[in-house]
Amino acid sequence: MTHLRDASGPYFGEYGGRFVPESLIAALDEIAAEWAAAKADPEFKDELARLHRDYSGRPSLLTDAVRLREHAGGARILLKREDLNHTGSHKINNVIGQALLTKRLGKDRVIAETGAGQHGVATATAAALFGLECTVYMGAVDTARQALNVARMRLLGAEVVAVEAGSATLKDAINEAMRDWVANVERTNYVFGTAAGPHPFPELVRDLQSIIGEEAREQSISMTGGLPTAVVACVGGGSNAIGIFNAFLDDEEVRLYGFEAAGEGADTPRHAATLTKGGKGVLHGARTRLLQDSDGQTIESHSISAGLDYPAVGPEHAWLADIGRVTYVPVTDDAAMQAMRLLSRTEGIIPAIESAHALAGALDLGRELGPDATIVVSLSGRGDKDMETAMEYFKLGEPDRTDLEVMPAEEAEAVEKIGGDS
């Protein structure tokens, strides 16, 4: 019997595969073969475990968000704290593994794409640690809204290339990184940032991120005496989500929810709800679900979160949606921003805007499931990088600002009930 969590590429159902230039096939074959060998190599596994423990700071905590509970219908909310990892997000789990793999491949240069900058910072960090040359491609729009992360990458020694083509966001950054890889494949390894792209990247990234779910499953049982009612995560490309879902895929009693970016509304032209509104097609080397027009052309996505501003999704998510194992729900920019502020005020934790989409979804889900439910939320990253967006959204820099002016009445009552700001 094949377990869902053991599903592997090149295809997940009808999704996945390789749709790339012929010049990259050998490189992809080499990565797939080396990853299969590395997973079976005790020395590689020991070194990866040592780096997780001594460098990244694993295991990450599972935090009981006690004050958030009353906003979630009384449901218990447990936060899987990937924001506490070195570099501030789940991205380091994947990058440390792929950097080790780069050394096994005998290559001395890595390239990466990044949207919110978290994957770029993690790649620049690993490159510095392992002595690798590093180039990171980033959409020009994202370099502006994530300027702090651009500075971090440069300080770490990486070259950051601002991509002006197309919408100048993550999709275009991946296009440019692919072009670089084709031209320099002999000495360059592409450290792909999410569970998308051509085989073996969806499987490789899923494997490296599965440590999130393995820890969360064990910690949840230890903390509550059993499995959670539901596990939730935000979904852009889908790496943190597939990482935490993987350990629970064969636990039929555990509900799994992925919350994707509805932007200004999934029924408006400005969203990134690829599983809710997307169709089947090919993008960045894989068949998956993506946003496209009636002629099959990829259309621009929108999200206030740079990390979710991507018009496609990893092929395993598309498959899990089709077979009904995971439910995918769109969350608007505003709902995510309100959840970001709520967690900041109730728990003293400022989440990344990506993660705030999962929080907003968990709050609604908790109200639906009721006080007996336990919901594990993947808090995939911290919000330091998003402070400029938050400052603009909430007008935090205005000296005469009073927060209750923009707070919905229901939320204002809730804040007052739990003590407010004074």
TrEMBL record:
Q: Which InterPro entries match?
A: Trp_synth_b_CS, Trp_synth_beta, Trp_synth_beta/beta-like, TrpB-like_PALP, TrpB-like_PALP_sf
Q: Which UniProt keywords apply?
A: Amino-acid biosynthesis, Aromatic amino acid biosynthesis, Lyase, Pyridoxal phosphate, Tryptophan biosynthesis
The question of whether Lyase is a record keyword is answered with yes
Matches recorded under CDD domains: Trp-synth_B
Entry's EC annotation: 4.2.1.20
Sites bearing N6-(pyridoxal phosphate)lysine, chain numbering: K91
One Pfam family cited in the UniProt record for this chain: PALP
Which family, according to the similarity comment?
Belongs to the TrpB family.
How it assembles, according to the record, is: Tetramer of two alpha and two beta chains.
Q: What is this protein called?
A: Tryptophan synthase beta chain
What organism, scientifically named, is this protein from? Pseudoclavibacter endophyticus
